Amino acid sequence: MKILLVNPPNSGKSIPEEKYGIDSIKQIFRGEPLALEVLAGNLYDFEVRIVDLKAAPDSLPQVLAEFKPDIAGITGVTCEANSVLEIANEIKESCGSKIVVGGIHASNDPNFFNRSQVDYVAIGLGKASFRELVLALNEGQKDIRIPGIAATSPGAPLAYTPRKFSSSDLADEIPPAYHLVDQYRSTYYLASLHLDMGFVVTAFGCPFNCSFCCISGLTGGRYLTHKTDTVIRDIKMLGDLPVIRLLDANTFGDPEHARRLCTAIREAGIKKQFLADVRSDTVVKHPDLMQQWKDAGLRAVIIGFEEISDEGLKKMNKSNLASINTESISILHEIGITIIGDFIVSPDYDENDFNRLGKYIKDTAIDLPMITVMTPLPGTKMHREIQHEIIINDLDYYTLTNAVVPTRLDEKVFYQHYASLLREGHTGAKL
């Protein structure tokens, strides 16, 4: 049985560019499709290919003509959901393949893919469940009932058994199939910072429940960690790549696991630089852990500060304080770890709000601010709370750089302020 795994092309539309000619807001980083590499690794006894349409956007027709897959698995985030459907339709018409859609949008809004060109939706982590589905299809089973896998039924609600995710879903003993993207490897870099990097995952999920975040849909709200030996194996598989991005929602969600992993990296003699995600309250509670990781090669951390006021954080159910954010910045500066700070601009912002955020970023010397626009992603608590306010339902615009609810300021003025913040924050940014 032949299986094709597809990473969709860069998708999404831009209101500020289309309406006002502001094109500086676009932020594209091309990284390897680790989720597909993980799936492919667990299909070790089948013929599997990965096609990365972000790296080679026009390559799908040729791949389909040559490979003729029996099954095609397509992943995608929310702004890629429409593209995923188009790809599914192209593959179905070309090869008649069974189409399986998974990824973050499918996990949070599975009914969106309850369409005729899709056969199954994989909800949540798919390393184990997708293999179970492939095995069932290979055996010719018809009435397939696998927790976390929904057979589509256009015109009727999806019916499926939610999966109770556990460590067995990580299949630690099976490594990612990194070799399946060798032909694209030279394109995986952060161009603005001239960094070649590889991706490794140490944990899935997050123990917190911010209202805007879609991460919990991957694991049903659980936080699952890979064994340290598994992570060390995967790092070594990436050879001489100098930078490893630990592609977790929260690498330090379990501080003791993070401590063990740090020790294992040093004992293995690994000399690489790492980028990882951490919460500011973890930094404040465990500055010694940050220092240990700095000594082991931690170059930069990505922190979701989100807002600069307690009121703003409370609205997001962030379970944190603005003072903790500021304290964490001081700690990281003292240790010498670069800070990539995530901030979320509310469509309700006025000029004073933009100015305050700009001043905070400058005063605290955030090395690289990453600023997005508050977006109620389908399936999140925020979407359920404010869906009546949404004026743009086309998911192509759910790029986190468009306001899909009304802005308090004139729309053009809002985007001008937003573009100015991005421009100021990225001037001279270094990692």
Strand percentage, roughly?
15-25%
Low-pLDDT stretches are none
Using the CA coordinates, give the radius of gyration.
21 Å
Distance between the termini: 44 Å
Specify the oligomeric state: single chain
pLDDT averaged residue by residue: 94
Q: What's the helix-strand series?
A: EHHEHEHEHEHEEEEEHEHEHHEHHEHEHH
- The fourth-level CATH homologous superfamily of the largest domain is Aldolase class I
Q: Per CATH, what is the topology of the largest domain?
A: TIM Barrel
What is the number of E strands? 15
Q: From the helix content, strand content and strand pairing, which structural class follows?
A: alpha/beta
What would you call the shape? globular
Strand sequence of the main sheet, in spatial order?
Answer: 7-8-11-12-13-14-15
